[in-house]
Amino acid sequence: MAKAEILSIPQRNLWEKIKTFINAELIHILAAILFLLLAIFLLYPILAVLIKSIKSPDGLTLSYYAKFFVKGYYFQSLLNTLMLGFINTVVCLTVGFCMAYLTTRGPLSLRKPLKFIAMMPLIAPPYLFAISLIILFGRNGILTMALGLKWSIYGFSGVVIAQTLAFIPLAYLMIENTLMSLNPNLEESAYDLGASETRIIRTITIPLLAPGILKAGLLVFVMTIAEFGNAAILGGRTPFLAPDTYQMIIGEADFEMGSVLSVILIIPCIIIFFLHSYLLTGKKFTTIGGKPVASEPRKMTPLVKIPFLIISCLAGLVILISFGVVFISSFTRLLGVKNEIVFSHILNFDSNRAIYNSIQVSLIAAFIGAIIGTLLAYVIVRGKFFGRTFIEMVSLSGFALPGTVIGIGYLLAFNTPPIKLTGGIMILALNCVFRFLAVGVEAGISKLHQINIEIEEASADLGANFMTTFYKIVLPIMFPAFIAGFIYTFMTAIVSLSAVVFLVSPGFELAAVKIFDAAAYGEIGIASATTMKLVVIVIFCMVILNYITKKTGFDVSQKKRSVTV
Amino acid sequence: MSSNQSIPMLMLNDIHKFYDRLEVLKGISLDVTKGELVTFVGPSGCGKTTLLRVIGGFTPFDSGEVILDGQRIDHLPPNLRDTRICFQNYALFPHMTVAENISYGLKIKKWKKNKIQERVEELLRLVKLEGLGGRMIDKLSGGQQQRVAVARALSLEPKVLLLDEPLSNLDANLRLTMRGEIRKLQERLKITTIFVTHDQFEAMSISDRIVVMKEGVIQQIGSPIEIYERPENEFIASFVGYVNFLDGVVERVDLRPDMATVSTPVGEINFVPERNFNVGDKVKLVIRPETINMSRSEPANGDNILQGEVEIGMYVGSLAKYTVQVKGERMIIDQTNPRETGIFKENEKIYLTIPKNIHVLRKN
After folding, report:
1. B272–A contact, CB cutoff 8 A
2. Which CATH class is domain A343-565?
3. From its phi and psi, is residue A359 left (phi > 0), alpha (psi between -120 and 50) or beta?
């Protein structure tokens, strides 16, 4: 009896010690686990691509890179990609600026409808525009036939048009944001001192917005050059890096050259990622406090109003037509050729199964993504350990990396033991989790910044340990961010194409890949119908998000903006 | 351009302004003479800033006229008006130097380079910022930014200078200094100026005339003394400083000497009427705390003498503030030289002397 008692004391103490240790160090243990996951599922695949591009059977080599620069075709592909990015950026910024200027300075009656149209492409996968362009200008396109056009949409110009339409909202949103944050008194002061509207735009508005516009430009550039779908569907014989990588891997099984192309594609992305974060912290014009004055609608001079209106309306019209034709095409045998109403595309079994598969994968991805995102946000905001910012950077980097590169990375990294995932559904889900982690993390971080740490300290002060505090205080407060992360991951995952196109196995097709294949084989009806189904799903998600925003007062859309931004 | 003395520099005729269905300016009419400094003052939401923006041309309005130096300007955009505004947040162009800010309007008017330079130097001297022309805006202190904003607004020699709460972003001491400097500058340049503020004391200390506004209506226009000593209604009386109101009925009106008597809850009070009152008029007496005298012994002369009891006494250095109960009425009294008059204790019985030149409002 007595002996047992004596023995039990140190034993309990040891257990207590372990418990205390776990409790005190839990945040560090958590950080370690999360970092391990990031390392395995984000850093390792990228590393695998890098290694593949310089490893030959007899050691390290740069011969594949040499081939890239020697062989005209590859180099041309790089030039095309950069050119595409440049033209796209300029056009998107111009259109975005005109639209944003009108929706923030223009007549009130115009603001809402214009904003609505400018944001419309957000609800569609980017490759919707490739499909609409095929319907209008393809070999059997409506306008091609009606006007007897000789011009082919397949090629550089087609890709430029589709990409521009797809990335207008990004440019618009960012520029609108900066325009709204510009103190209206500045422009009014210039006006007051005698400046005309064109002069105000030239000497005040644009110089002051320059950092913001530059940021938007960098982002549009990166997104454009990394975009896979439009270039793959409409590129025709014009080489671009992202679809070429796909061609290398899937068509020719040339993993070495595929890796080289990937690395080349990453370089501008990384440069811009750093430029972008440098700009974020860098030049910012401070304005002196005082009451914020709402921008009153002002009389715009026709000199500004008319060209801005023409550009905005033209872009808006094309966006509306694109949605329209894809919608009609989903219910038409073959729009422009056989104009009869059919439901076979909508009811197509393969399409519906692909949608079902996509939902399944995206739900898994959303669930895992939201959990990891929330935990990462917590560790990043509340942790006080070395390397915290590095974890933040890595977790946000998935967004900046081209999908094709991550796709190849997963293919290279997880097709052999120790971690063999290829051919399964988990590789698709995990890929989406780590690519789109940024959304959940950012939502979590901004939510946490709203919470005073003293709430947690108060809980600890009342005797709760770390687990209790986390479970009872932190999780409930972060719940809106968790839901936001969940739905955003789901939304982005379900339309994403560039990475999963490398990872789908025969017999388990995803909606995005189905659309891509159907478009490539000329099954425009099926491509349209499947796209429209995705649009409906995305709209549904947005409605839920909107509801949550209203319910919890946590502006999720704002968060999303800061992520895409 | 005739600057005839008889024609006001700025005339506002019956200005109405709606935001949706909310009328924020309800028929504002006002004349401002040349070289005058007029303050718009009132609680937030009274329409003072909107009115200023109407004059500047930034806010379209629904009906009425704005006449500058004899010419209607309400159809003109801000860049074609001879008025210049200085915003509350200064709205200095942060990507330009001080000199570039000041010369922005001059360049638009296509002044010659050397002329511009001369003018900028002159303005910098005027606002005491010599040698700072090359500075960037964010390298200036708040007070210096304020001066640049004023210099920029003055650069084109406007006919009317509009200042929208120019001092509200400065700390208390600087505000006092800048207040004096703006006034001195305005008097030196003889520039017609409209000054918007929510601070009654700022308005009192800087203005030729004060326009008190409330809910889109002008309550009273008058010199600081008129506004303080002869407020036209209760709102104005209590807007500037504290007031003891006493309700009463006129009992007797004498012509020789000119004197009227009012019965109030604290007893009969005699006053020298500023206008005609009739027996039976319901009135409100406006008694400023600093006009009432307190003493321990009954004063000799037979003014309005009341007896009361000190409820709360607060010593604040330059004055002592008392709350005194007089027959169930609570009165606030400031003794401006407490060392002279002595400090009264709580519950002490005291005598109050109320002067005869009381301002009296007629109640409707």
Report:
1. no
2. mainly alpha
3. alpha
